[in-house]
């Protein structure tokens, strides 16, 4: 029997973060894939305090959010620690990890939902291989309302998505600095690596963004940790919105 149960959404970057951490810890787990939006009611019904994924059942307790789960995993399985003991190196990891959760996760999510609203066929590539209880083709064909609701819940409107793209160059510069200073991207991955790499890999499944990320230090670091990531969506962002990345 699996030690843990991970509840996530197909293609979710924080969900992949937690899956990688569980594998790093050698914790056997069962993955349960939920559909966007519908997941909120299911998680409430399962007794989780919030409605967001990733959500983890571990040792008879419930945890949500990639940072909270990372701390729980270090307590549950201290070997292969995700965080170092207190000191300057730990402070750097915590700084990078916080940036990954608070500043990187959501803009990438907004960009993807904006594009999926306009190219719903691309959903198929993000859902392939998951176990959502529906045939992939049917899920894509009937997924319009869920996509629209996800766009609404994530505030993925034109203004916010344009702002998200404009903020990417500064974020990528900061992430490159973390790689070059050795905070992330080393031989032994830490909590910040697991937090950031899946978000960058999700961004690299977006045809508009991949050329601006793949050759950067953070792009190389993300590819090493997450060589395979489900999904691809062809270019679809207005060219004018990409000017900050070109600059």
Q: Tell me the CATH topology of the largest domain.
A: Glutathione S-transferase Yfyf (Class Pi), Chain A, domain 2
Estimate percent helicity.
55-70%
The order of strands across the largest sheet is: 2-1-3-4
Q: What is the general shape?
A: globular
Unreliable residue runs = none
CATH architectural label of the largest domain: Up-down Bundle
Walk me through this protein's architecture:
55% of the residues lie in helices and 7% in strands. With 247 residues, it is of the alpha+beta class. It has two domains: 73 residues, 3-Layer(aba) Sandwich (Glutaredoxin); 159 residues, Up-down Bundle (Glutathione S-transferase Yfyf (Class Pi), Chain A, domain 2), CATH 1.20.1050. Strands 2-1-3-4 form a four-stranded mixed sheet, with helices on one face. Helix 4 crosses helix 7. The protein is globular, with a radius of gyration of 18 Å. 40% of the residues are buried. The mean pLDDT is 93.
């Amino acid at each position: 029997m699996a030690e843990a149960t991970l509840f996530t959404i197909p293609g979710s970057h924080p969900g992949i973060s937690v899956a990688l951490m569980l594998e790093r810890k050698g914790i056997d787990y069962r993955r349960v894939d939920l559909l966007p939006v519908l997941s909120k009611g299911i998680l409430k019904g399962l007794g989780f305090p919030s409605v967001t994924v990733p959500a983890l059942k571990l040792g008879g307790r419930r945890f949500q959010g990639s940072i909270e789960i990372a701390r729980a995993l270090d307590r549950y399985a201290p070997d292969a620690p995700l965080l170092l003991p207190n000191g300057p190196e730990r402070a750097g990891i915590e700084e990078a990890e916080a940036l990954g959760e608070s500043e990187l996760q959501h803009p990438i999510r907004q960009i993807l939902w904006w594009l999926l609203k306009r190219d719903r066929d691309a959903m198929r590539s993000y859902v392939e291989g998951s176990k959502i209880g529906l045939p992939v083709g049917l899920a894509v064909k009937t997924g319009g309302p869920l996509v629209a609701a996800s766009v609404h819940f994530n505030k993925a409107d034109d203004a916010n998505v344009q702002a998200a793209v404009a903020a990417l160059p500064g974020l990528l510069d900061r992430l490159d600095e973390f790689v070059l200073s050795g905070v992330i991207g080393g031989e032994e991955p830490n909590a910040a690596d697991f937090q950031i790499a899946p978000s960058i890999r999700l961004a690299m499944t977006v045809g508009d963004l991949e050329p601006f990320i793949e050759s950067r230090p953070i792009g190389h670091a993300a590819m090493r940790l997450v060589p395979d990531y489900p999904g691809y969506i062809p270019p679809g962002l207005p060219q004018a919105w990409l000017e900050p990345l070109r600059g």
